[in-house]
Write a structure and sequence with these properties.
Mean pLDDT: 93
Helix content: 25-40%
Number of helices: 10
CATH superfamily of the domain at 1-115: Creatininase
Strand content: 5-15%
Structural class: alpha/beta
CATH architecture of the domain at 1-115: 3-Layer(aba) Sandwich
Shape: globular
Low-confidence stretches: none
Length: 391
């Protein structure tokens, strides 16, 4: 019998030790018949299942152009191949036309088996009943987090924050399913990290906004749990705002980093500057609160030997005037940046509350920005008056 395991619950050293002929599968959606999947793969002893991609393909409820989706998936598969894995696949629902996946190179990497939970009835993500709400778009990543944390850290944290916001202000916001794949330009330094690719990432999320705007949505908040996504998300909101002049589309630097989050970090942290960055006091505390079963605190290695100068240094709220991207392994021997040994579950609880409160404030600001701008437009402010009066 085939043993299926969750790839993203491993640490990067555990992935580094996996046999390179072990099958690894990225599902499109959930609810597949794993017995049939095992059979399609030749009933191997073990199969690694990566986090499912929640939407993007035809009939997923939120489809983007096939070439754009195909490149996103192809880059993820190539990340696994670059790590030396020879049997990498994406799993698609049975019954979809093959041309839906034609843009993805290597058609032999496609497996199709029945999907039990999707496509039984037409669905839309988000439902059209949610018009007028801020659409929360949480994006995590599948990325190494040192010796003691799993690959799923960024996804678990940002999904928890997004769900917390959506439940607290349900009449004001609606959360999309979390996307577990983003951009890692440093992925060659340590095993197990995936990379959707910067350009493919931008194209995909601009296309998502295009689709949602065409369906009548006009307020969007990209929420990232992964620092590598941030520069690309800035481009995405700029592109989206230029293409769709009657929307308000925003992002913010990670989470727990605005006025509320910064104050909470300062109040409860015990590490010095440099103790928060990656697999650090902050992220480890979140995980001890949210998923202690995935934390291996006996393996923690504090890494604070970042090459620091007055205008370039590492901490959760990065400081200095310089922006750069030196090799990750210049500053870390284990993949961590920061002092994970300072983490506690209670700090994680307090910081999660602060992160949710901070994001709720952002939701309200997005509503206010959109409503006040629409009022100006309707009143004919500036050039809007000329546009409105044009026959």
């Amino acid at each position: 019998m085939t043993d299926f395991f969750a790839y993203d619950e491993l640490t990067w050293p555990e992935v580094a030790e996996l046999p390179r002929d072990l099958p690894l599968v990225i599902p499109l959606g959930k609810g597949y018949d794993l017995t049939r999947l095992a059979s399609a793969l030749g009933n191997p002893p073990r199969v690694g299942i990566l986090p499912p991609i929640p939407f993007g393909w035809r009939s997923s409820g939120l489809a983007v152009p096939e070439a754009i989706f195909g490149q996103y998936v192809a880059n993820l598969l190539d990340s696994l191949r670059d790590d030396g894995f020879t049997r990498v696949y994406y799993l698609a629902p049975q019954g979809l036309a093959p041309q839906s996946f034609a843009p993805i190179p290597n058609p032999e990497s496609r497996i199709t088996v029945p999907n039990q939970t999707q496509y039984a009835r037409p669905i839309f993500l988000p439902p059209d009943s949610e018009h007028g709400k801020v659409i929360l778009i949480p994006i995590g990543h599948t990325e190494q987090h040192g010796y003691h944390l799993p690959l799923s850290v960024d996804t678990i944290i940002i999904d928890s924050i997004a769900q917390g916001v959506a439940s607290r202000v349900a009449t004001r916001s609606e959360a999309l399913p979390v996307m577990p794949y983003g951009v890692s330009t440093h992925r060659s330094s340590f095993a197990a990290t995936l990379n959707a690719g910067g350009r493919a990432f931008e194209d995909f999320w601009v296309a998502v906004v295009d689709v949602l705007v065409a369906r009548g949505f006009d307020r969007f908040y990209f929420m990232s749990g992964h620092g590598g996504n941030m520069s690309f998300l800035v481009n995405i909101v700029k592109y989206a705002g230029e293409r769709h002049r009657r929307i308000f589309c925003a992002t913010a630097f990670l989470h727990t980093a605005g006025m509320i989050g910064a104050a909470a970090i300062e109040k409860y942290r015990t590490s010095a500057i440099g103790g928060m960055g990656h697999a650090c006091e902050l992220e480890t505390s979140f995980m001890l609160h949210l998923r202690p079963d995935l934390c291996h605190m006996e393996r923690v290695v504090d890494e604070t030997d970042f090459v620091t100068t007055p205008s370039y240094y590492m901490d959760w709220i990065e400081g200095g005037a310089l922006v750069a991207n030196p090799p990750w392994d210049d500053d870390s021997k284990t993949g961590a940046y920061g002092a994970g040994s300072h983490a506690t579950a209670e700090k994680g609880r307090l910081w999660l509350e602060a992160a949710i409160e901070e994001k709720i404030g952002h939701v309200e600001e997005i509503h206010e920005q959109h409503e006040r701008r629409e009022q100006r437009r309707e009143e004919g402010y500036g050039l809007w008056g000329k546009i409105k009066s044009t026959p």
